[in-house]
Structures are given as structure tokens and as C-alpha cells.
Specification:
The protein has 6 helices and 14 strands. It is an alpha+beta fold. It has a 7-stranded mixed β-sheet with strand order 1-12-11-10-9-8-5, sandwiched between helices. Strands 2-4-3 form a 3-stranded antiparallel β-sheet, with helices on one face.
Length: 220
């Protein structure tokens, strides 16, 4: 495993190694015909549950197809590890990719996995907890690159997280032959890990270690 601290390029020769050329999100601009409010986005998501829908800071809809079964299995393993740690730690709550968060810049994002301190969640109203997308940035996010994602688009999303209050973010790229993990922290150069067997959440998530072997080598 090697570790380097650099700002990653938006894309690279190794970036797009999927069997099908990734397109990234389809961006649909509807304003001023239709304003994509949180309520509109929630209704669209309910009507199109086979798609992953997000809203960017400019108010445009971003559409991604559902993940393939390999990515689904990889993401499940991530959420199992994070969920088990979250229960034992008990300081925060773990969320899967179904949870949407309205960031301070107005974007609505659904990380593949995330964690938020209970002390911050306590500031939300009951309405925010039960309906729509909570106006809060996670403390920690994980994005797992799938065959439909361009590396550049996820790097942009990770940078957005850091600019909107997220304290730690991991971009895991199982499509990269070098098995890179990009570690994001606010106001710091992106740390690039090549081929790690695991990754630690210290100091932001004390005691959390994610086993990456099921991500690099799915069991089917």
C-alpha cells in the first residue's frame, strides 16, 4: 500500500476502466419551468424509485441509474461495517444511500453511506426527521464508484461535501486497477491510498475500521 497527499486530477488514464464507458449523472435543467424543491424531488423519487435522483446547487436534477449487483453487494458490506461500529460507538447515527441531506448550498445529496452525530441531529425538528430531506450535512460520508460514475463527477461531489461542513469523506474506487481510496478532509490536500486492505476513520470516527477486501474482491 502506498500513501500520497496530493490534489487528485479530475480524471486519469486509469479512471474509466468499466466495461461500459461511464457517463456520470444525467443533468436535467427544468428551472424556470419547474422549480425542483425538496417536495418536488421527494415526489419524483417516489414515482421513479428505480432511479437515483439528487439535486445540485444550481437546482438542476441529477439522474443516475440503479447500481449493478456487484456495486450493491459492495455497498452493503460498507454499510454493515459502518452500522456495526455505529451501534457500538452510539455517539451518532448511520444512514444508507436512501437518506437525502439538503446541504447549506441547496444541493440534495444521498451518499452511499453516512454518519451524523446525535448531538447535531437533536437540533432537527420532528418534521425534518420524518419528511423530506433534513437540512444538515453529515459528519462523515462514503461514496463508492460504480460503473455508471465518472471519477471526475464523484471528485466534484466530494469537494462539495467538504465545502458544506462534512468533516471526513472517503471515495472508494474499485474500478481502478490500483484500488485507490481518496480521503477528503476540509482545507487539506486529498490523501490517496493505493491498495489498502482496510482504512481507519481516526480521529473523526474513533475505533472505526472499514475492511476493504469485500470491496476489492466481491464473493461472486
Amino acid at each position: 500500500m502506498t500513501t500520497r497527499s496530493v490534489i487528485p486530477k479530475q480524471d486519469s488514464a486509469q479512471a474509466d476502466t468499466a466495461l461500459v464507458k461511464p457517463l456520470g449523472p444525467i443533468v436535467l435543467r427544468l428551472d424556470p419551468i419547474v422549480e425542483i424543491t425538496d417536495d418536488v424531488l421527494l415526489k419524483l423519487s417516489s414515482l421513479n424509485d428505480s432511479l437515483r435522483l439528487e439535486k445540485n446547487a444550481e437546482g438542476a436534477l441529477e439522474i443516475l441509474p440503479p447500481a449493478n449487483i456487484t456495486t450493491g453487494n459492495q455497498n452493503s458490506n460498507i454499510n454493515v461495517d459502518l452500522g456495526l461500529w455505529g451501534r457500538s460507538d452510539s455517539r451518532g447515527i448511520v444512514f444508507d444511500s436512501n437518506a437525502g441531506f439538503t446541504l447549506p448550498n441547496g444541493a440534495v445529496r444521498s451518499p452511499d453511506a453516512s454518519w451524523v452525530l446525535k448531538s447535531r441531529l437533536a437540533e432537527l425538528t420532528d418534521e425534518e426527521k420524518k419528511r423530506g430531506f433534513a437540512h444538515i450535512s453529515p459528519d462523515f460520508v462514503i461514496e463508492l464508484r460504480s460503473s455508471s460514475d465518472t471519477l471526475a463527477s464523484i471528485h466534484r461531489k466530494m469537494a462539495e461535501y467538504m465545502e458544506n461542513g462534512v468533516r471526513l469523506g472517503w471515495l472508494i474506487d474499485p474500478l481502478d486497477p490500483l484500488r485507490r481510496v481518496y480521503v477528503y478532509r476540509p482545507d487539506k490536500s486529498v490523501e490517496i491510498l493505493e491498495g489498502p486492505e482496510s482504512i481507519s476513520g481516526e480521529p473523526e470516527l474513533p475505533g472505526f475500521t472499514l475492511d476493504l477486501q469485500p470491496i476489492w474482491e466481491p464473493g461472486f
